[in-house]
Structures are given as structure tokens and as C-alpha cells.
Specification:
There is one protein chain. The protein is mostly helical. 86% of the residues lie in helices and 0% in strands.
Length: 106
Amino acid sequence: MSNANTELEKAFTNIRECHGKLLKEAVKAAEQALIDDASDLWRVTNNIKKEIESRQWITEGRGPYEWDDERYQEETKVAFDAVLKLIEGVQHPAQLRFHEVLKAAR
């Protein structure tokens, strides 16, 4: 085997090793993102459930409010706003992790 072929084979071996290392790092980053997302999702869904359970009466009737009492609408809005705030708390970090994983995979 010529010296040029030996050097070429060494270069290909080095490239394969580097590619393998980068691939392992990308997989590790993706796994961590999935773990983080699952953890966040579990936490937020539990908080959403608690929020809904604390205002379950809204689905059963008007509670203490008379039919023409606008405070019922305000209370309902507070309930929905609380749930939306919980969702927003996990949505943006998940999007950031997703984009970081895409960068690592490139």
C-alpha cells in the first residue's frame, strides 16, 4: 500500500471518529431535551389540573353569582388566564430546547 493510501485511510478514520463523536453529542443533547420537556410537562399538567379542580364549580353553574352578575365572567377569565400562564411557562423553554437540539444535530 502506498504512503498516500495510508494517509488517506488515516484521514477517513479520523473523519469517521469525529462524525461518531458529534453524533453521540447530538443524541445526548436530544435525550436531555426530552427529559427536560417531560419533566416540565409533568409539572405544568399537574398545576393545570389543580387550577381547574379549584374552579370546577364554573362548569357546574354560576356558583354564588346571580345570572346578571358580571363577576362570573371575570372569575372565569381569571381561571383561563391562570391556565394559559402555566402553559406559557413551559412553552417557550421547550421551543428553545428544540432549536438547540436542531443546532446540535447539524
